[in-house]
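ugh ok so i messed up the first submission bc i forgot one of the chains. this is the corrected input, ALL of the components this time, i swear. 498 residues overall. if the numbers dont match what u have on ur side tell me asap before i send this to the collaborators (the ones from the other lab, u know who)
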Amino acid sequence: MGTLELTNITKKFGEQVILDNLNLQVHDGEFVSLLGPSGSGKSTIFHLIGGIYQADNGTIKLDNEIINGQRGTISYMPQTASLFPWRTVLENVVLGAELHGKPDKQKAFHMLEKAGLKEYANAYPRELSGGMQQRVAFVRSLLSPQPFICLDEPFSALDEFTRLEMQKWLLSIWEEERPSVLFVTHNIEEAILLSDRVLVLGEKPANVIKEVTIDFKRPRDEELTLTAEFLTIKREIYQTLRGVIDD
Amino acid sequence: MLRKSSLPIIVIVSLFIIWEAASRIFTIPTWVLPAPTVILAEAINGWSNYQHHIFSTLSLTVSGFVLGAGVGLIIAIVLHLLPKIREALYPLLIMSQNIPIIVLAPLLVIWFGFGITPKLLIITLVCFFPVAVSMIDGLRHTNQDLVHYMKMAGATKKQIFTKLELPHALPQFFSGLKISATYSVMGAVISEWLGANKGIGVYMTLASSSFRTDRVFVAILFIMILCMVFFALIMLAEKICLKWQTNKGEK
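and heres the new structure output, hopefully the right one now
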Protein backbone atom coordinates (compact mmCIF):
# COMPACT_ATOMS: atom_id res chain seq x y z
CA MET A 1 0.00 0.00 0.00
CA GLY A 2 1.01 3.58 -0.59
CA THR A 3 -1.67 6.23 -0.86
CA LEU A 4 -0.85 9.80 -0.09
CA GLU A 5 -3.42 12.46 0.59
CA LEU A 6 -2.78 16.13 1.26
CA THR A 7 -5.84 18.02 2.44
CA ASN A 8 -6.11 21.81 2.77
CA ILE A 9 -2.42 22.29 3.37
CA THR A 10 -1.37 25.84 4.20
CA LYS A 11 2.20 26.88 4.86
CA LYS A 12 3.52 30.34 5.59
CA PHE A 13 7.03 31.58 6.15
CA GLY A 14 6.49 34.73 8.14
CA GLU A 15 4.13 36.89 6.10
CA GLN A 16 4.69 35.00 2.88
CA VAL A 17 2.10 32.36 2.06
CA ILE A 18 3.80 29.57 0.15
CA LEU A 19 0.99 27.04 0.03
CA ASP A 20 -2.65 27.96 0.35
CA ASN A 21 -5.21 25.20 0.83
CA LEU A 22 -3.35 22.73 -1.30
CA ASN A 23 -5.06 19.43 -2.05
CA LEU A 24 -3.53 16.46 -3.81
CA GLN A 25 -3.81 12.69 -3.84
CA VAL A 26 -1.58 9.93 -5.09
CA HIS A 27 -3.20 6.52 -5.31
CA ASP A 28 -1.54 3.21 -4.69
CA GLY A 29 0.87 2.31 -7.48
CA GLU A 30 0.33 5.60 -9.23
CA PHE A 31 2.99 7.84 -10.75
CA VAL A 32 2.06 11.49 -10.24
CA SER A 33 4.11 14.48 -11.37
CA LEU A 34 4.05 17.93 -9.84
CA LEU A 35 4.90 20.42 -12.52
CA GLY A 36 5.64 24.02 -11.76
CA PRO A 37 8.07 26.85 -12.31
CA SER A 38 11.11 27.13 -10.05
CA GLY A 39 10.33 28.65 -6.71
CA SER A 40 6.68 27.64 -6.84
CA GLY A 41 6.88 25.78 -3.56
CA LYS A 42 7.49 22.28 -4.90
CA SER A 43 10.31 21.60 -2.49
CA THR A 44 8.24 22.96 0.38
CA ILE A 45 5.61 20.32 -0.36
CA PHE A 46 8.27 17.63 -0.09
CA HIS A 47 9.62 19.04 3.13
CA LEU A 48 6.11 18.96 4.56
CA ILE A 49 5.53 15.37 3.47
CA GLY A 50 8.98 14.40 4.75
CA GLY A 51 8.18 15.93 8.13
CA ILE A 52 10.99 18.49 8.12
CA TYR A 53 8.47 21.35 8.11
CA GLN A 54 5.20 21.56 9.99
CA ALA A 55 2.13 22.62 8.04
CA ASP A 56 0.27 25.62 9.49
CA ASN A 57 -2.99 24.00 8.57
CA GLY A 58 -4.30 20.81 6.97
CA THR A 59 -3.46 17.14 7.13
CA ILE A 60 -1.08 14.83 5.33
CA LYS A 61 -2.22 11.23 5.30
CA LEU A 62 -0.25 8.20 4.23
CA ASP A 63 -2.43 5.08 4.00
CA ASN A 64 -5.09 6.93 6.01
CA GLU A 65 -2.71 7.71 8.84
CA ILE A 66 -1.86 11.30 9.66
CA ILE A 67 1.88 11.87 9.24
CA ASN A 68 2.14 15.64 9.81
CA GLY A 69 5.63 16.39 11.12
CA GLN A 70 6.65 12.75 11.18
CA ARG A 71 10.01 11.94 9.66
CA GLY A 72 10.98 8.81 7.83
CA THR A 73 7.52 7.87 6.57
CA ILE A 74 8.43 8.28 2.90
CA SER A 75 11.34 7.24 0.79
CA TYR A 76 13.15 10.16 -0.76
CA MET A 77 15.42 10.85 -3.70
CA PRO A 78 16.94 14.34 -3.72
CA GLN A 79 18.03 16.57 -6.57
CA THR A 80 21.68 15.70 -6.11
CA ALA A 81 22.51 12.02 -5.81
CA SER A 82 23.63 12.54 -2.17
CA LEU A 83 25.56 9.31 -2.02
CA PHE A 84 27.98 8.76 0.83
CA PRO A 85 31.46 8.89 -0.68
CA TRP A 86 32.97 6.43 1.80
CA ARG A 87 30.39 3.77 1.08
CA THR A 88 30.48 1.50 -1.93
CA VAL A 89 27.47 1.45 -4.26
CA LEU A 90 26.09 -1.61 -2.50
CA GLU A 91 26.53 -0.05 0.94
CA ASN A 92 24.92 3.13 -0.35
CA VAL A 93 21.77 1.53 -1.69
CA VAL A 94 21.05 -0.23 1.59
CA LEU A 95 21.39 3.00 3.61
CA GLY A 96 17.69 3.85 3.53
CA ALA A 97 16.83 0.37 4.79
CA GLU A 98 19.66 0.43 7.31
CA LEU A 99 18.11 3.39 9.13
CA HIS A 100 15.03 1.33 9.94
CA GLY A 101 16.45 -2.09 10.62
CA LYS A 102 18.79 -4.67 9.24
CA PRO A 103 19.25 -4.30 5.48
CA ASP A 104 18.88 -7.21 3.07
CA LYS A 105 22.10 -7.19 1.05
CA GLN A 106 20.98 -10.09 -1.10
CA LYS A 107 17.91 -8.21 -2.21
CA ALA A 108 19.96 -5.08 -2.74
CA PHE A 109 22.39 -6.91 -4.97
CA HIS A 110 19.53 -8.38 -6.92
CA MET A 111 18.04 -4.94 -7.45
CA LEU A 112 21.39 -3.55 -8.59
CA GLU A 113 21.55 -6.37 -11.09
CA LYS A 114 18.10 -5.48 -12.40
CA ALA A 115 19.08 -1.83 -12.63
CA GLY A 116 22.16 -2.69 -14.66
CA LEU A 117 24.54 -1.64 -11.90
CA LYS A 118 25.85 -5.07 -10.94
CA GLU A 119 29.44 -4.47 -11.97
CA TYR A 120 29.52 -1.25 -9.93
CA ALA A 121 28.38 -2.86 -6.68
CA ASN A 122 31.80 -2.50 -5.08
CA ALA A 123 32.79 0.79 -6.68
CA TYR A 124 32.82 4.08 -4.80
CA PRO A 125 30.49 6.89 -5.95
CA ARG A 126 33.33 9.08 -7.21
CA GLU A 127 34.18 6.44 -9.78
CA LEU A 128 30.68 6.79 -11.29
CA SER A 129 29.32 9.33 -13.76
CA GLY A 130 26.54 11.72 -12.76
CA GLY A 131 23.83 9.62 -14.42
CA MET A 132 25.08 6.45 -12.77
CA GLN A 133 25.07 8.15 -9.38
CA GLN A 134 21.44 9.14 -9.88
CA ARG A 135 20.60 5.54 -10.73
CA VAL A 136 22.21 4.41 -7.50
CA ALA A 137 20.22 7.05 -5.61
CA PHE A 138 17.00 5.79 -7.19
CA VAL A 139 17.79 2.18 -6.32
CA ARG A 140 18.45 3.36 -2.77
CA SER A 141 14.97 4.90 -2.59
CA LEU A 142 13.42 1.75 -4.08
CA LEU A 143 15.12 -0.37 -1.42
CA SER A 144 13.97 1.84 1.43
CA PRO A 145 11.22 0.16 3.44
CA GLN A 146 8.65 2.95 2.93
CA PRO A 147 5.95 2.22 0.32
CA PHE A 148 5.87 5.76 -1.03
CA ILE A 149 8.65 7.44 -3.03
CA CYS A 150 9.19 11.17 -3.46
CA LEU A 151 11.51 12.21 -6.29
CA ASP A 152 12.69 15.81 -6.18
CA GLU A 153 13.79 16.87 -9.68
CA PRO A 154 16.17 13.94 -9.82
CA PHE A 155 17.37 14.59 -13.37
CA SER A 156 17.62 18.36 -13.35
CA ALA A 157 21.40 18.34 -12.94
CA LEU A 158 22.00 15.99 -15.87
CA ASP A 159 22.68 16.88 -19.48
CA GLU A 160 19.96 16.31 -22.09
CA PHE A 161 21.31 12.98 -23.38
CA THR A 162 21.82 11.46 -19.98
CA ARG A 163 18.42 12.76 -19.01
CA LEU A 164 16.68 10.90 -21.86
CA GLU A 165 18.62 7.77 -21.03
CA MET A 166 17.61 8.09 -17.38
CA GLN A 167 13.91 8.63 -18.16
CA LYS A 168 13.87 5.43 -20.20
CA TRP A 169 15.67 3.57 -17.46
CA LEU A 170 13.37 4.92 -14.74
CA LEU A 171 10.29 3.93 -16.76
CA SER A 172 11.49 0.37 -17.20
CA ILE A 173 12.33 -0.06 -13.52
CA TRP A 174 9.18 1.64 -12.30
CA GLU A 175 6.87 -0.33 -14.58
CA GLU A 176 8.31 -3.49 -13.08
CA GLU A 177 8.20 -2.47 -9.41
CA ARG A 178 5.19 -0.13 -9.45
CA PRO A 179 5.71 1.82 -6.23
CA SER A 180 3.60 4.93 -5.65
CA VAL A 181 5.59 7.95 -6.77
CA LEU A 182 5.30 11.68 -6.40
CA PHE A 183 7.66 13.24 -8.89
CA VAL A 184 8.62 16.91 -8.88
CA THR A 185 9.91 18.39 -12.11
CA HIS A 186 9.93 21.53 -14.22
CA ASN A 187 10.26 19.61 -17.47
CA ILE A 188 6.88 19.20 -19.22
CA GLU A 189 7.93 16.39 -21.54
CA GLU A 190 9.43 14.40 -18.71
CA ALA A 191 6.27 14.75 -16.66
CA ILE A 192 3.99 13.54 -19.47
CA LEU A 193 6.25 10.68 -20.49
CA LEU A 194 6.55 9.23 -17.00
CA SER A 195 3.27 9.93 -15.23
CA ASP A 196 -0.24 8.65 -14.88
CA ARG A 197 -1.31 12.13 -13.83
CA VAL A 198 0.30 15.54 -14.07
CA LEU A 199 -0.58 18.26 -11.58
CA VAL A 200 0.29 21.78 -12.65
CA LEU A 201 1.16 24.12 -9.81
CA GLY A 202 0.32 27.79 -9.83
CA GLU A 203 2.59 30.35 -8.26
CA LYS A 204 2.54 32.16 -4.92
CA PRO A 205 0.68 30.77 -3.15
CA ALA A 206 1.07 27.44 -4.90
CA ASN A 207 -1.97 25.35 -5.64
CA VAL A 208 -2.95 22.76 -8.19
CA ILE A 209 -4.42 24.79 -11.05
CA LYS A 210 -4.75 21.99 -13.56
CA GLU A 211 -4.88 18.24 -13.46
CA VAL A 212 -4.10 16.22 -16.58
CA THR A 213 -4.63 12.49 -16.73
CA ILE A 214 -2.19 10.79 -19.07
CA ASP A 215 -3.76 7.72 -20.62
CA PHE A 216 -0.93 6.37 -22.75
CA LYS A 217 -0.51 2.63 -22.50
CA ARG A 218 2.44 1.19 -20.65
CA PRO A 219 5.13 0.16 -21.28
CA ARG A 220 5.91 3.48 -22.88
CA ASP A 221 8.97 4.49 -24.83
CA GLU A 222 10.44 7.76 -26.04
CA GLU A 223 8.80 7.45 -29.50
CA LEU A 224 5.70 8.55 -27.68
CA THR A 225 7.07 12.06 -27.26
CA LEU A 226 6.71 12.63 -31.02
CA THR A 227 3.08 11.55 -31.40
CA ALA A 228 0.29 14.03 -32.03
CA GLU A 229 -1.59 13.22 -28.82
CA PHE A 230 1.54 13.75 -26.79
CA LEU A 231 2.16 17.12 -28.39
CA THR A 232 -1.45 18.16 -27.81
CA ILE A 233 -1.12 17.48 -24.10
CA LYS A 234 2.24 19.20 -24.04
CA ARG A 235 0.75 22.30 -25.68
CA GLU A 236 -2.14 22.32 -23.26
CA ILE A 237 0.13 22.18 -20.24
CA TYR A 238 2.51 24.68 -21.74
CA GLN A 239 -0.26 27.19 -22.20
CA THR A 240 -1.45 26.71 -18.65
CA LEU A 241 2.07 27.27 -17.36
CA ARG A 242 2.54 30.32 -19.54
CA GLY A 243 -0.60 31.75 -18.07
CA VAL A 244 0.92 31.25 -14.63
CA ILE A 245 4.13 33.03 -15.51
CA ASP A 246 2.38 35.90 -17.32
CA ASP A 247 0.11 36.66 -14.37
CA MET B 1 57.94 10.39 -10.52
CA LEU B 2 61.53 9.26 -9.92
CA ARG B 3 62.82 12.80 -10.35
CA LYS B 4 60.31 14.17 -7.88
CA SER B 5 61.35 11.91 -5.02
CA SER B 6 65.04 12.13 -5.79
CA LEU B 7 65.16 15.93 -5.66
CA PRO B 8 65.05 16.32 -1.86
CA ILE B 9 67.60 13.52 -1.53
CA ILE B 10 70.00 15.35 -3.83
CA VAL B 11 69.59 18.54 -1.78
CA ILE B 12 70.19 16.76 1.53
CA VAL B 13 73.20 14.83 0.26
CA SER B 14 74.83 17.96 -1.17
CA LEU B 15 74.22 19.82 2.09
CA PHE B 16 76.00 17.03 3.96
CA ILE B 17 78.91 17.15 1.50
CA ILE B 18 79.28 20.92 1.94
CA TRP B 19 79.07 20.52 5.71
CA GLU B 20 81.69 17.75 5.76
CA ALA B 21 84.01 19.65 3.43
CA ALA B 22 83.65 22.88 5.42
CA SER B 23 84.49 21.26 8.73
CA ARG B 24 87.59 19.61 7.22
CA ILE B 25 88.86 22.65 5.31
CA PHE B 26 88.34 25.11 8.15
CA THR B 27 89.20 22.51 10.82
CA ILE B 28 86.22 23.46 12.97
CA PRO B 29 86.60 21.97 16.46
CA THR B 30 84.28 19.02 17.08
CA TRP B 31 82.70 20.64 20.16
CA VAL B 32 81.62 23.60 18.02
CA LEU B 33 80.32 21.77 14.98
CA PRO B 34 81.12 18.10 14.43
CA ALA B 35 81.35 16.82 10.87
CA PRO B 36 78.59 14.49 9.66
CA THR B 37 81.01 11.53 9.65
CA VAL B 38 81.90 12.18 13.31
CA ILE B 39 78.18 12.26 14.21
CA LEU B 40 77.56 9.08 12.29
CA ALA B 41 80.47 7.36 14.00
CA GLU B 42 79.10 8.38 17.40
CA ALA B 43 75.64 7.21 16.40
CA ILE B 44 76.98 3.76 15.52
CA ASN B 45 79.59 3.32 18.27
CA GLY B 46 77.50 4.80 21.07
CA TRP B 47 74.34 2.78 20.32
CA SER B 48 74.58 0.67 23.46
CA ASN B 49 75.10 3.86 25.52
CA TYR B 50 72.02 5.66 24.39
CA GLN B 51 69.59 3.09 23.01
CA HIS B 52 67.65 2.86 26.30
CA HIS B 53 67.08 6.62 26.06
CA ILE B 54 65.46 6.22 22.68
CA PHE B 55 63.15 3.43 23.73
CA SER B 56 62.13 5.38 26.80
CA THR B 57 61.25 8.43 24.67
CA LEU B 58 59.50 6.21 22.16
CA SER B 59 57.16 4.68 24.72
CA LEU B 60 56.54 8.08 26.33
CA THR B 61 55.74 9.58 22.93
CA VAL B 62 53.38 6.81 21.93
CA SER B 63 51.44 6.83 25.19
CA GLY B 64 51.31 10.63 25.24
CA PHE B 65 50.20 10.76 21.63
CA VAL B 66 47.45 8.19 22.10
CA LEU B 67 46.24 10.03 25.20
CA GLY B 68 46.40 13.44 23.48
CA ALA B 69 44.67 12.29 20.31
CA GLY B 70 42.01 10.54 22.39
CA VAL B 71 41.39 13.66 24.48
CA GLY B 72 41.27 15.76 21.30
CA LEU B 73 38.74 13.41 19.74
CA ILE B 74 36.51 13.38 22.81
CA ILE B 75 36.66 17.17 23.14
CA ALA B 76 35.72 17.55 19.47
CA ILE B 77 32.75 15.21 19.77
CA VAL B 78 31.46 16.75 22.99
CA LEU B 79 31.81 20.29 21.68
CA HIS B 80 30.10 19.30 18.44
CA LEU B 81 27.15 17.62 20.10
CA LEU B 82 26.68 20.39 22.65
CA PRO B 83 26.93 23.70 20.73
CA LYS B 84 26.30 25.75 23.87
CA ILE B 85 29.37 24.24 25.50
CA ARG B 86 31.34 24.82 22.32
CA GLU B 87 30.56 28.51 22.45
CA ALA B 88 31.63 28.63 26.07
CA LEU B 89 34.80 26.59 25.81
CA TYR B 90 36.23 27.27 22.37
CA PRO B 91 38.16 30.42 23.40
CA LEU B 92 39.56 28.49 26.35
CA LEU B 93 40.76 25.82 23.97
CA ILE B 94 42.69 28.37 21.95
CA MET B 95 44.09 30.01 25.06
CA SER B 96 45.43 26.66 26.23
CA GLN B 97 47.78 26.81 23.28
CA ASN B 98 49.11 30.24 24.21
CA ILE B 99 50.68 29.05 27.45
CA PRO B 100 54.41 28.67 26.85
CA ILE B 101 55.20 25.03 27.57
CA ILE B 102 58.65 26.00 28.88
CA VAL B 103 56.95 27.99 31.64
CA LEU B 104 54.22 25.50 32.31
CA ALA B 105 56.52 22.51 32.56
CA PRO B 106 58.25 23.44 35.85
CA LEU B 107 54.84 24.26 37.33
CA LEU B 108 53.55 20.83 36.42
CA VAL B 109 56.58 19.31 38.18
CA ILE B 110 55.75 21.30 41.30
CA TRP B 111 52.17 20.03 41.20
CA PHE B 112 52.68 16.45 40.09
CA GLY B 113 56.28 15.56 40.95
CA PHE B 114 58.87 13.97 38.72
CA GLY B 115 56.80 10.97 37.71
CA ILE B 116 55.23 10.26 34.38
CA THR B 117 52.09 12.36 35.02
CA PRO B 118 53.49 15.82 34.21
CA LYS B 119 55.22 14.41 31.13
CA LEU B 120 52.03 12.87 29.79
CA LEU B 121 50.20 16.11 30.56
CA ILE B 122 52.64 18.14 28.48
CA ILE B 123 52.43 15.81 25.50
CA THR B 124 48.65 15.70 25.78
CA LEU B 125 48.52 19.48 25.90
CA VAL B 126 50.45 19.85 22.65
CA CYS B 127 48.77 16.88 20.93
CA PHE B 128 45.09 17.32 21.66
CA PHE B 129 44.73 20.70 20.01
CA PRO B 130 45.38 19.92 16.33
CA VAL B 131 43.14 16.85 16.55
CA ALA B 132 40.34 18.70 18.35
CA VAL B 133 40.34 21.75 16.08
CA SER B 134 40.47 19.90 12.78
CA MET B 135 37.91 17.35 13.94
CA ILE B 136 35.48 20.08 15.08
CA ASP B 137 35.85 21.70 11.65
CA GLY B 138 35.30 18.38 9.94
CA LEU B 139 32.15 17.69 11.95
CA ARG B 140 30.77 21.16 11.36
CA HIS B 141 31.25 21.10 7.62
CA THR B 142 29.26 17.99 6.96
CA ASN B 143 27.74 18.08 3.47
CA GLN B 144 24.29 19.65 3.91
CA ASP B 145 22.80 17.64 1.02
CA LEU B 146 23.65 14.46 2.84
CA VAL B 147 22.25 15.79 6.12
CA HIS B 148 19.07 16.72 4.28
CA TYR B 149 18.76 13.24 2.81
CA MET B 150 19.28 11.66 6.22
CA LYS B 151 16.58 13.87 7.77
CA MET B 152 14.09 13.11 5.00
CA ALA B 153 14.86 9.41 5.30
CA GLY B 154 13.96 9.60 8.97
CA ALA B 155 17.41 9.16 10.51
CA THR B 156 17.66 9.80 14.24
CA LYS B 157 20.20 12.27 15.62
CA LYS B 158 22.38 9.38 16.67
CA GLN B 159 22.24 7.83 13.21
CA ILE B 160 23.12 11.14 11.58
CA PHE B 161 26.11 11.39 13.88
CA THR B 162 27.46 7.86 13.60
CA LYS B 163 26.61 7.14 9.97
CA LEU B 164 27.25 10.56 8.49
CA GLU B 165 29.08 13.16 10.55
CA LEU B 166 31.71 10.91 12.07
CA PRO B 167 32.88 9.21 8.86
CA HIS B 168 32.59 12.55 7.07
CA ALA B 169 35.10 14.09 9.49
CA LEU B 170 37.60 11.25 9.23
CA PRO B 171 39.89 12.97 6.67
CA GLN B 172 40.09 16.03 8.94
CA PHE B 173 40.78 13.76 11.90
CA PHE B 174 43.76 12.33 10.07
CA SER B 175 45.20 15.71 9.17
CA GLY B 176 44.96 16.62 12.85
CA LEU B 177 46.69 13.36 13.78
CA LYS B 178 49.57 14.04 11.41
CA ILE B 179 50.30 17.41 13.01
CA SER B 180 49.95 15.91 16.49
CA ALA B 181 52.31 13.09 15.66
CA THR B 182 55.16 15.46 14.90
CA TYR B 183 54.36 17.59 17.94
CA SER B 184 54.28 14.58 20.22
CA VAL B 185 57.98 13.79 19.80
CA MET B 186 58.92 17.39 20.58
CA GLY B 187 56.54 17.36 23.52
CA ALA B 188 58.17 14.22 24.87
CA VAL B 189 61.69 15.64 24.57
CA ILE B 190 60.68 18.90 26.26
CA SER B 191 59.00 17.02 29.07
CA GLU B 192 62.17 15.03 29.61
CA TRP B 193 64.22 18.19 30.05
CA LEU B 194 62.28 18.90 33.20
CA GLY B 195 63.63 16.05 35.07
CA ALA B 196 63.82 12.47 34.05
CA ASN B 197 66.45 9.81 34.33
CA LYS B 198 65.99 8.42 30.83
CA GLY B 199 65.04 9.68 27.39
CA ILE B 200 66.43 11.57 24.42
CA GLY B 201 65.80 14.83 26.26
CA VAL B 202 68.01 13.69 29.15
CA TYR B 203 70.69 12.41 26.79
CA MET B 204 70.61 15.74 24.97
CA THR B 205 70.97 17.84 28.14
CA LEU B 206 73.83 15.67 29.39
CA ALA B 207 75.58 15.86 26.02
CA SER B 208 75.31 19.62 25.66
CA SER B 209 76.41 20.34 29.20
CA SER B 210 79.52 18.22 28.68
CA PHE B 211 80.22 19.79 25.26
CA ARG B 212 79.63 16.50 23.44
CA THR B 213 78.14 18.31 20.50
CA ASP B 214 78.33 15.18 18.37
CA ARG B 215 75.90 13.51 20.78
CA VAL B 216 73.55 16.49 20.63
CA PHE B 217 73.40 15.94 16.90
CA VAL B 218 72.81 12.22 17.39
CA ALA B 219 69.83 13.17 19.57
CA ILE B 220 68.53 15.55 16.90
CA LEU B 221 68.95 12.84 14.31
CA PHE B 222 66.85 10.41 16.31
CA ILE B 223 64.16 12.98 17.03
CA MET B 224 63.85 13.50 13.30
CA ILE B 225 63.75 9.79 12.59
CA LEU B 226 61.05 9.26 15.24
CA CYS B 227 58.97 12.09 13.80
CA MET B 228 59.25 10.75 10.30
CA VAL B 229 58.42 7.17 11.24
CA PHE B 230 55.43 8.40 13.18
CA PHE B 231 54.23 10.52 10.33
CA ALA B 232 54.67 7.68 7.86
CA LEU B 233 52.69 5.28 10.07
CA ILE B 234 49.78 7.70 10.25
CA MET B 235 49.87 8.29 6.51
CA LEU B 236 49.70 4.54 6.06
CA ALA B 237 46.73 4.26 8.41
CA GLU B 238 45.09 7.13 6.54
CA LYS B 239 45.57 5.40 3.22
CA ILE B 240 43.96 2.24 4.56
CA CYS B 241 41.04 4.01 6.27
CA LEU B 242 40.35 6.48 3.47
CA LYS B 243 40.79 4.24 0.48
CA TRP B 244 37.55 5.62 -0.97
CA GLN B 245 39.31 8.94 -1.51
CA THR B 246 41.80 7.61 -4.03
CA ASN B 247 40.54 6.59 -7.43
CA LYS B 248 41.44 3.13 -8.59
CA GLY B 249 42.61 4.37 -11.97
CA GLU B 250 44.46 7.36 -10.55
CA LYS B 251 48.24 7.37 -10.61
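quick check: Chain A is about 35% helix and 25% strand. that seems consistent at least. Chain A has a mean pLDDT of 85.
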